[in-house]
């Protein structure tokens, strides 16, 4: 985006937002100004926006415990096949799976730009309750830096990303 361009021009903003963005920092700031990091201080995340109006977002805590299973064992579990592994190994993997899911969020769908906001229309996600909802973020783009801010009654979430393509 060029200097002096108004962020309220949706066409200019959409042109500027298209691409792949890698997370630099995500922090939660409460009413008293206390800062926390919901996915730790070193999460891994990407946001992708296409020219056609589609988007994808994923974030995870970087130090999640591995499940301790072979790929085939994980695939068998996912397709509902009877586990061929020790039941204790299976139970341990189940607990670790639940822990891993708590520290991961991902969704896909369409997006639109309205004034200085981007609205994600969620179509695909692990949590069925989120399908069909809209996630609205205030956006700022400066060069290769994207800042998305989500505002809630008792806190806000600031997400800063750098363009990678």
Topology summary:
Elements (H helix, E strand, L loop, with lengths): L9 H8 L1 E12 L4 E2 L7 E6 L4 E7 L10 H8 L8 H16 L1 E11 L2 E9 L8 E9 L2 E7 L3 E9 L2
Q: Can you tag this structure with a few keywords?
A:
alpha+beta; 2 domains; eight-stranded antiparallel β-barrel; 3 helices; 9 strands; disordered N terminus
Q: What is shown here, in short?
A:
The protein is an alpha+beta fold and 165 residues long. The protein contains 3 helices and 9 strands, in the order αββββααβββββ.
Instruction: Quickly name the level 1 CATH class of the largest domain.
Output: Mainly Beta
Biggest sheet strand line-up? 1-3-4-5-6-7-8-9
In CATH, the topology of the largest domain is named Lipocalin
Profile the largest sheet: 8 strands, antiparallel, barrel
Low-confidence segments: 1-8
Approximate shape: globular
What fraction of residues sit in β-strands?
A: 35-45%
- The percent of residues in helical segments reads 10-25%
Radius of gyration: 19 Å
Structural class: alpha+beta
- Please indicate the count of domains: 2
**What's the CATH H-level homologous superfamily of the largest domain?**
Uncharacterised protein PF14869 family, DUF4488
Outline the structure in words.
There is one protein chain. This protein has three helices and nine strands. It is an alpha+beta fold and 165 residues long. It folds into two domains: 10-63 and 105-163, Beta Barrel (Lipocalin); 71-100, no CATH class. The chain has an eight-stranded antiparallel beta barrel with strand order 1-3-4-5-6-7-8-9. Mean pLDDT is 89; it is low at 1-8.
């Amino acid at each position: 985006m060029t200097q002096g361009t108004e962020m309220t021009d949706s066409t200019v903003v959409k042109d500027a937002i298209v691409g792949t963005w890698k997370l630099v920092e995500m922090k939660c700031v409460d009413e008293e100004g206390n800062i926390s990091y919901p996915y730790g201080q070193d999460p891994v995340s990407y946001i992708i926006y296409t020219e056609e109006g589609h988007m994808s977002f994923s974030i995870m805590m970087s130090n999640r415990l591995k499940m301790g299973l072979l790929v085939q064992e994980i695939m068998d579990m996912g397709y509902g096949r009877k586990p061929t592994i020790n039941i204790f190994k299976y139970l341990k993997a189940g607990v670790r799976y639940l822990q891993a899911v708590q520290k991961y969020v991902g969704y896909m769908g369409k997006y639109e730009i309205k004034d200085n906001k981007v609205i994600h229309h969620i179509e695909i996600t692990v949590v069925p309750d989120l399908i069909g909802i809209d996630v609205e973020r205030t956006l700022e783009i400066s060069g290769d830096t994207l800042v998305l801010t989500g505002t809630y009654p008792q806190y806000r979430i600031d997400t800063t990303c750098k363009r990678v393509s």
